[in-house]
Design goal:
Length: 224
């Protein structure tokens, strides 16, 4: 759900004869969503961890996510729980990042940081994080085991506008491969690593913000 933009678009698409439920684990983010879209009659929001939340069974025609399904502690349990919420004729459609190598918007600044800091060990496949569902074979197994069928992956490559440099740097101290090394670094090494990352981002800075290549999967599946 996030800030509610996608949920609001879906509510407009289904019209007054349909209903949309936006779910997010963060109450802080949902406060933003509610403040933006409180006047949309067919749109409701709920604070929920989709991995364990008790959704109404077999209630939804379509389940969607925009960069949210990669962070479940147990993706197997999460997709099973999500699957049971869908009608027999239902579908799931979501987008997730492809590999780190294919996403230099995060990979290139991290590589710059690792000219100063030691890189972390490569995470085990399926470890929660931005790229946990990048492998179609692994993701297909998770979804098929949960009951999904006719699982389809469509690659999309588009430039992404990250915004201004300093907020991007702050984001990368909390998310991605450089986050933990930056947290554990000495002050001097941290500043040197951030400076190296800043140089990389400046190479892609435009009047509209930092623009870099990105690569995603559009994943579609039937629930039965």
């Amino acid at each position: 759900c996030g800030g509610g933009i996608t949920s609001a678009a879906l509510a407009a698409a289904v019209g007054p004869r349909g209903e949309v439920l936006g779910a997010d684990i963060s109450e802080t983010i949902l406060k933003v969503a509610r403040s933006r879209y409180e006047n949309i009659a067919n749109l409701k929001f709920t604070t929920a961890d989709a991995e364990v939340f008790s959704f109404v069974p077999q209630n939804y025609d379509l389940i969607t996510s925009r960069f949210g399904v990669m962070f479940f502690a147990s993706p197997n349990a999460a997709f099973r729980n999500i699957h049971q919420t869908a009608k027999p004729s239902g579908r799931m459609v979501y987008i997730c990042w492809r590999t780190l190598v294919e996403n230099p918007w995060m990979g290139a600044p991290a590589a710059a940081a690792f000219t100063v800091l030691p890189p972390p060990e490569k995470p085990e496949p399926g470890t929660p994080g931005p790229f946990s569902l990048a492998d179609p074979k692994l993701t297909t197994k998770i979804m098929a085991d949960a009951g999904f069928r006719d699982i389809k992956f469509t690659p999309v490559d588009e430039p992404v506008n990250l915004g201004e440099i300093e907020p991007v740097l702050h984001f990368m101290t909390t998310m991605g491969p450089a986050a933990e090394p930056l947290k554990s670094a000495t002050d001097a090494d941290r500043e040197a690593a951030l400076a190296a990352m800043r140089v990389t981002l400046e190479q892609h800075n435009t009047k509209d913000g930092v623009i870099m290549p990105s690569a995603i999967w559009v994943v579609e599946a039937k629930t039965h």
